[in-house]
Amino acid sequence: MQKSFNNQVKKIREIVNRFDSDSNSLKISLIRDIQANKILFNHALKDYHECLLFIMSFPPDEKTRSLAEREVLRISGLLKKQPEKIKELFVNSGIPLSRYQAAYSHDCTRWLLSHPDCTVAINEITNTSFDLNTALKVTIPAQLRNYTTAAYTNDVLLDELMAGKKLQLGYIINELSRLDNTPYIKDHYYQGLGIHTDIVPKSKLLSKAYNRIEIPETFYHSEIIKRFDVVELLNRKLPDEAVLSSAEKEKLVLIIKNSMAITERETDPATYMKEDSLHLFHLDRGVSVALYGMPAERQLPMESYIGYTMFKNGYPAAYAGGWVFGWRSDFGLNIYDQFRGGESAFMVAQILRVYRQLFNVNHFQVEASQFGLDSPEGIETGVFWFYYKLGFRPNDLALRQLAKSEHIKISSRKGYRSSEKTLLKFTESNISMSLGKPVQPGCMI
Fold it and tell me: C-alpha angle with apex 297: 296 to 300, nearest 5 degrees?
């Protein structure tokens, strides 16, 4: 039975991004076959869940989308009934009602403590740089400060200061909130503690399948676009910005922040979002892009760090930011795993389109860390060529010529792949895409 389930999931994985009639029919058939048999709680179930998320984001039709969503709910219901030993295997899976464990910043943890859809508690304190005695000594009232000089362990100190286990995380957060007027000092102390949290959802909303925005209409796929005119798309006039009520904006902020929490990630713009800077655009083929900034005290001296979340048919699909300075911007990209194999290049171009037109950007730069520097995965997957096809070229002229030569080989020799040595060579330079004006003086290259 285990072999059968694993093989069925493997077959779905192989065809999940194909949209011909036979593949669409096979998706439905495989899901129904799995429904008719016992679910196995192994690694293949995580893969199956990721495939269902892809189908919900790239649906061929409403029938298939609805079937995938019902299947996610069925998996969630079955997992909920399992013993804790089984549930532990699916921590951080994003399956509805499954738990999360991660370390977040002070402000993000404070936000999670007030979250309507989960409870949050301490999992462990790792004393990354120092212990609670050191951190709390600078915040607690003078009459209690002797507790921090008694060489107590973290557990004993917390029991002395706040006996209720469920209240101890809130106590630490409230104490360090006294340093809100010196945010970098506050962050230093909190991060130095190395606090890892347990997050227990109270509803299905805090999950990958149900954390989604409302969209004007669902886009159904008959194909995956691989080739398109990048420059034409970047210059294609943006539609009007989405008009959001206060309640809709509040929900959008929640979904953006949720998308970070349930994938154990954080970006400064998402955590410290200045909500009146939030813009949302509904674009082509079910792509939506939200951009948002931060308060001045969290910004960089010269560049404006503007974060983004990209959605596909309402589901958060990618995140990172642009560092805008004049008419140029550094650009970062993180695509969530379940969306790889889809229209990644097209979706990323839509993000660049918004930055280009909203901030009049004519020069984008991607740092080498984004395509392989100190990143074995980036080298293994050849991310450099993903950016190359979008129009990015090495800033170094010799490497630009090498890339051109390699691209000719890839185009003309079937099965040719750049060597690891060559891909590592490319990381000696950042890469850029220029769309008009030369980069202004002072641009970091």
Answer: 75
- Give the separation between CA 312 and CA 334, rounded to whole angstroms: 14
Long-range Cβ pairs for the range 146-149 (8 Å, 24+): none
3-state SS track over 101-170: EECCCHHHHHHHHCCCCEEEEEEEECCCCCCHHHHHCCCCCHHHHHHHHCCCCHHHHHHHHCCCHHHHHH
The amino acid at 37: N
Residue 321: partners with Cβ closer than 8 Å, 6 or more residues away: 267, 269, 305, 306, 307, 308, 332
Give which of 289, 366, 359 is closest to 331, Cα–Cα.
366
Which tokens go with 355? 């930055």
In the structure encoding, which two tokens stand for residue 100, read together? 């999360």
C-alpha pair distances (Å), 363 with each of 215, 233, 381, 435, 443: 30, 15, 25, 6, 10
Strand partners, 335: 318
Going by their DSSP bridges, the two strands 195-201 and 100-102 should be labelled as antiparallel
Residue with tokens 């039709």: 61
Q: Which two tokens stand for residue 47?
A: 């893969």
Q: Is 168 left (phi over 0), alpha (psi -120 to 50) or beta?
A: alpha
Q: What is the pLDDT along the chain (445 residues), one digit of tens a residue?
A: 567 899 999 999 999 999 999 999 999 999 999 999 888 999 999 999 999 999 999 999 999 999 999 999 999 999 999 999 999 999 999 999 999 999 999 999 999 999 999 999 999 999 999 999 999 999 999 889 999 999 999 999 999 999 899 999 999 999 999 999 999 999 999 999 999 999 999 999 999 999 999 999 999 999 999 999 999 999 999 999 999 999 999 999 999 999 999 999 999 999 999 999 999 999 999 999 999 999 998 988 889 999 999 999 999 999 999 999 999 999 999 999 888 888 999 999 999 999 999 999 999 999 999 999 999 999 999 999 999 999 999 999 999 999 999 999 999 999 899 999 999 999 999 999 999 766 655 544 3
CATH 1.20.930 at 2-90, yes or no: yes
Euclidean distance between CA atoms 408 and 417, whole angstroms: 11
Cα end-to-end span (Å), the chain: 56
State pTM to two decimals.
Answer: 0.94
